Amino acid sequence: MAVRAKKQFGQHFLRSSDTARNIADCLPMVCPNCLEIGPGMGILTTQLLEKNINLKVIEIDGESIDYLLANGIIDPSCCIQGDFLKLPMPQFFGGQQFMVMGNFPYNISSQIMFKVVENRDFVPALAGMFQREVARRICSPAGSKEYGILSVLVQAFYDTTYHFTVDEHEFNPPPKVKSGVMSMVRKENYTLPCDEALFFNVVKTSFNQRRKTLSNSLKKILNDNKLDDSIGQKRPEQLSVEEFISLTNTIAEMLTKK
Question: Is the N or C terminus of the chain more exposed, i.e. has fewer CB atoms within 10 Å?
């Protein structure tokens, strides 16, 4: 049996059940419910079923669902056939909180993360395998080359940990990229001390023109206001989450005065 690391073009199957077990062991056990995204042929599912959790799986591929059911890997009542990105989060466990787990489809992994952040009230923890660059980006500190929109928006609400790299040769056929396993746990206080909608806008706008200074990249938001050079001459990768929060409050005050 093999588990898929889904890519935009083709599928790659993890050879080792030991690696699947190691991935499952990265899941922070912070609540009783868990949703696995994209179980494929179920090797990670079988590892999760050994844990004391209430597990459901969501899979867009009908053939994978048929395989899981035909082989008795998981009960039909625990299978959801559908697109995680299109379904409302509260419906998965009747409005209860749940952990998220998966060997995530690499071409939509960032979209999955953005949906989790937007629905963070329901998701206290997540773990899984991503393309290594994405996993590193999520966990990267300010000042690093990988640091970007996903880094700031995830780390604003979650503590993140990069666990280990999975080499290409562990898959059949080998992908052209390495994979990375990471986890994250929601912060105890995950409400930001600023206008959160403005915070998201400032972060995304800043990094969409990351080679420009903040004074230049944020012109449309600033509305003729000027940032102090101590912050305005910096580039977005130089700012920590806390500094983005402070910048958001500064801009909010400027806009209020206008």
Answer: C
**pLDDT-derived band of residue 16, with 50, 70 and 90 as boundaries?**
confident
Confidence grade of residue 41 (pLDDT, cut at 50, 70, 90): confident
Parallel, antiparallel or unpaired: strands 125-131 and 99-103: parallel
Half-sphere exposure of 220 (CA within 13 A, CB side): 9
Q: Which residue has the higher pLDDT, 182 or 9?
A: 182
Q: Would you put residue 173 in left (φ > 0), alpha (ψ -120 to 50) or beta?
A: beta
The DSSP bridge partners found for residue 5 are: 12
Helix/strand/coil percent split, the chain, to 5: 40, 20, 35
Instruction: Provide the residue type at 23 as one letter.
Output: I
Torsion of CA 127, 98, 3, 82, to 10 degrees: -130
Per the rule left: phi > 0, alpha: psi between -120 and 50, beta: everything else, 224 is left
**pTM, two decimal places:** 0.92
Residue 191 lies in a domain: no
Confidence of residue 175 (pLDDT cuts 50, 70, 90): confident
Rounded distance between C-alpha atoms, residue 92 and residue 79, angstroms? 10
Domain encompassing residue 157: 3-186
DSSP string covering 66-124, please? HHHHHTTSS-GGGEEES-GGGS-GGGTTTT---EEEEE--GGGHHHHHHHHHHTTTT-S
Let me know whether 202 and 174 are in one domain.
Answer: no
Is residue 142 assigned to a domain?
yes
Residues 158 and 230 in one domain: no
